[in-house]
Backbone:
């Protein structure tokens, strides 16, 4: 109900499919797993991540812990979730994100996902 209301508020049509998750981490799993394939290729689903540079996920320091849990479950590891500083309004600092990504790329990591968050817990 809330999702439909929010969708209507921002102009989405009222028909179509909806996906509901029982636990918060289920939604994170879907999103992170869906983001991973374009960066690691289709073979990663069959072979795992052994042949790939470590992939990294970026999220604000205020993001829910379910992001780290999803990365753990998917086999990326919690260390691959990079937290990014927020400003005084709890918005991710874009400059800090850019700096973190550039640093990780230089160290051989493969950035593949930036987690958006509308609010904090």
Residues:
């Amino acid at each position: 109900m809330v999702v439909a209301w929010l969708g209507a508020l921002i102009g989405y049509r009222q028909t179509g499919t909806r996906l509901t998750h029982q636990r918060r981490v289920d939604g994170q799993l879907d999103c992170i797993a869906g983001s991973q394939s374009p960066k690691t290729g289709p073979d990663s689903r069959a072979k795992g991540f052994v042949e790939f540079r470590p992939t990294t996920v970026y999220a604000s320091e205020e993001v829910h812990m379910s992001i780290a849990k999803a990365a753990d479950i998917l086999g990326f590891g919690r260390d691959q979730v990079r937290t990014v500083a927020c400003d005084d309004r709890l918005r991710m600092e874009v400059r800090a994100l850019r700096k973190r990504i550039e640093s990780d790329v230089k160290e051989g990591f493969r950035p593949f996902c930036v987690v958006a968050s509308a609010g904090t817990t």
In short: The chain has one domain: 22-114. Strands lie at 55-60, 81-84, 110-114. The helical segments are 2-9, 24-40, 43-47, 66-74, 94-106. The first strand starts at residue 55 and ends at 60.
